[in-house]
């Protein structure tokens, strides 16, 4: 029960006890209504002015029971009031108000369905890249704790398989949705709902079972990720190509921790209206000061590895690039314009 509800309950209970005791004192002790209410409040507050004491045996017995229950209820109410102020209730409400305002104005954001192990990794990566996102999960306590630690965290408590929850997450204005809930059937259902509500949204879904991959693709997922398949392939690669992978991992770690360079590999699709289309590789590098290393370009005719400088960029080409976050962001910006 929320602290505000506990305060309301304790106040109502205390009011009822005071009223009942006042009526009993009117009948048993013969007090006037005003005197009985005055005596009830003085007694339950433990002030005890001593200007009046019960004179009858029944009145004393009733007062004893009243004090035991009344003081307990009063202390319970005071404890809840203290929790309300000291426990940061106002601070929590202020964070919630700011978060709801952020969600209200979200545009071109990402929706993360499920905040388990995979969802947390996705959220951390999106936040690191500066992307706007909102998380949907049914575990309210976990989400509240995350907001407490991260004031910029956005979440909605609910079941992502329900349309009204996705609409609340501004799915019609979202750029992408990442479904990482535990059940494959739920990921399929979320994908279907997302594509129906926003046909242009880019959906990435998680699949635990191999059979779920085809179902998710049929449902409309643009990409399907199987953690178990990826993990197994990675383990096999480490066993077969340990030296190569260790070199890449070590190289990127050195760049990160010794030179503070965040190196990444990225795939960028060239939009039809991009200023890069129709120009050769050396031209766009010079004109737009693109410093990312182009490792390959995938065209309709096939994949060009280590493309020469005279390769012309066409709409729909997929560029595989390596570089820092800023370099890749610059390339991606021109590729999507």
TrEMBL record:
Keyword Transmembrane helix: yes
Keyword vocabulary terms for this entry: Ion channel, Ion transport, Membrane, Transmembrane, Transmembrane helix, Transport
PROSITE patterns xrefs: RCK_C, RCK_N
GO molecular function: monoatomic cation transmembrane transporter activity
Localization in the cell: Cell membrane
Main location: membrane
Transmembrane segments: 6-24, 36-53, 65-90
All residue ranges annotated as the RCK N-terminal domain in the record: 107-225
Gene Ontology terms: cellular component: plasma membrane
Protein origin, superkingdom: Archaea
Domain RCK C-terminal stretches: 252-337
InterPro entries: K_chnl_dom, NAD(P)-bd_dom_sf, RCK_C, RCK_C_sf, RCK_N, Trk_Ktr_HKT_K-transport
Membrane topology classification: Multi-pass membrane protein
GO biological process: potassium ion transport
Protein name: Potassium channel protein
Species: Methanothermococcus okinawensis
């Amino acid at each position: 029960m929320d602290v505000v509800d506990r305060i309301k309950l304790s106040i109502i209970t205390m009011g009822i006890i005071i009223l009942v005791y006042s009526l009993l004192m009117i009948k048993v002790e013969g007090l006037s209504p005003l005197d009985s209410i005055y005596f009830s409040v003085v007694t339950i507050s433990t002030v005890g002015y001593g200007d009046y004491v019960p004179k009858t045996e029944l009145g004393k017995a009733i007062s004893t029971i009243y004090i035991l229950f009344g003081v307990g209820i009063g202390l319970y109410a005071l404890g809840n009031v203290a929790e309300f102020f000291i426990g940061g209730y106002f601070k929590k409400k202020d964070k919630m108000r700011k978060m709801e305002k952020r969600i209200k104005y979200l545009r071109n954001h990402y929706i993360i369905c499920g905040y388990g192990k995979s969802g947390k990794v996705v959220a951390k990566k999106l936040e690191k890249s500066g992307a706007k996102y909102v998380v949907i999960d049914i575990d309210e306590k976990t989400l509240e704790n995350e907001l407490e630690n991260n004031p910029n965290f956005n979440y909605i408590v609910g079941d992502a398989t329900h349309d009204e929850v996705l609409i609340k997450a501004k799915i019609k204005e979202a750029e992408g949705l990442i479904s990482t809930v535990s059940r494959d059937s739920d990921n399929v259902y979320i994908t279907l709902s997302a594509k129906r509500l926003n046909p242009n949204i880019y959906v990435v879904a998680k699949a635990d079972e191999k059979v779920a991959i085809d179902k998710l693709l049929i449902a409309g997922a643009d990409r399907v990720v199987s953690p178990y398949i990826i993990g197994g392939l990675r383990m096999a690669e480490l066993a077969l190509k340990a030296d190569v992978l260790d070199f890449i991992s070590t190289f990127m770690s050195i760049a990160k921790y010794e030179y503070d360079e965040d190196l990444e590999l990225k795939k960028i699709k060239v939009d039809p209206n991009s200023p890069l289309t129709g120009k050769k590789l050396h031209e766009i590098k010079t004109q737009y000061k693109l410093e990312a290393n182009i490792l390959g370009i995938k065209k309709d005719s096939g994949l060009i590895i280590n493309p020469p400088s005279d390769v012309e960029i066409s709409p729909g080409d997929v560029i595989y690039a390596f570089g820092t976050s800023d370099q890749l962001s610059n390339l991606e910006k021109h590729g999507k314009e």
